[in-house]
Specification:
By secondary structure, this protein is α/β, with parallel strands linked by helices. Helix content is about 25%, strand content about 30%. The strands form four sheets. Strands 2, 3, 4, 5, 7, 10 and 12 form a seven-stranded antiparallel β-sheet that branches. Strands 13-14-15-16-17-18-21 form a seven-stranded parallel β-sheet. It has a five-stranded mixed β-sheet with strand order 1-6-11-8-9, with no helix packed on it.
Length: about 450
Amino acid sequence: MTRLLTGFLLLIVAARIGAQDPPAPAPVFKLDLAQAKDLPPGSSWIQEGPDGDFCFRVNVPADQGSGTQLVTVPIDLAPLRDHEILLSYAVRAQDVSRPEKDYNGIKCQLHWKSPSEGPRWFNEGMLSGTFDWRRSSLLIRVDADAADGELQVGLQESTGTAWIADVRISVIRQKPTRPGPIRGVVSPNHYDPQDLADLAAWNVNGIRWQLNNPDWNREAIPSDPEKYGAWLGPKLDELSRVLDQAQSLGIKVIIDLHAPPGGRLPDGTQRMFLEKPLQEHFIAVWQHIADRFKGHPALWAYDIMNEPLQNRPSPPGVMDWFALQEAAAKAVRAIDPRTPIMIEADQWDSPPAFAWMRPVAVPDVIYQVHMYWPYEYTHQGIDKPWTSEADKPGYPGTFNGRPFNREALIRHLAPVREFQRSYNARIFVGEFSAVRWAPGAAQYLQDCIAIFEAYGWD
């Protein structure tokens, strides 16, 4: 096999990637046939191409038995890694014998070496017989570590005559970029530009921004649309400033409607699950948010409902906690077809509730879970004072007479993990923590994070 370095014209083109149809493929490599020299016996560059231009002609006489006449041309694949390409060429054949192996015969083959995948060969194959000029093409996906690329042109293990012309490689599309993991915090209830600057310095890349009012208890959120709108309007203006600064810092923002219209009843049930006008208002609020902020480059997701809780049945004609989130998500998706939407589970979005969860009929959904378990540990000393040192549960240790350790955390999170595996769902841990004075809190958080990371959760 003779290695022949021919002239290739390297035209680096920008591949347009997106939802629209791509333009016609532009050539990246085009073989300059006129510069060829030192061809192997039985082959020549000759002006017998489809338009009277030059082509590569190779001939292996039948009385010689099957043979191999290939030209090998090195190709730099670095610009083509992680791209789908089209290898195309014009080909003509006269009495080319069918080879013993289908991948031999007329060859216009791309070859490279990949440390992860091993040696790779791409060729149309099954090209033999007699036919006039025609265009042949092959789609190829180039490995991310492709190296030592070369193009092999000619006949292999066949006899007869073949003509090959206008060999080119064109870019079809680039490999899609998968969204990276989000690692960040929940926002405070007010905007301070220094907060975001500090978070960026800590390499935080996401923030779940609360639309909340610290002066309200959960039962005092207005039901009246006018009063609610008077509060929400300035909060959305503030959110606009947050998004702009976050974009400059490389931080993604999840919009969390933490205080939806109507608030909660004393048992924690959202009033929305019992009153249809509140549901209509809730959906209208989300339509307004999506219409205002869709397309902002810092926007990562819409968090439809914070910690749904329904302990009472919805009246006839009124949606429950799941159906209302799905309806709001569909309304948002009709306005914004691209931004992910977050859905939470019943019972304060607790991990055990995921055993009762099912996917919503909306595309591009991320499922959110909150992890405050056991509450008596994570919130100790907040709801009521300790009566003795024995009241202070520690980690690792025991809780309710059972081991309280990393294995216990894994068991508690198992319904979420099962949901993730069953539905190929993306999981976002929207809240988790432990009060700083809880014994072993640092280890508790470290173990929680290690589990989340092992499962690939944001």
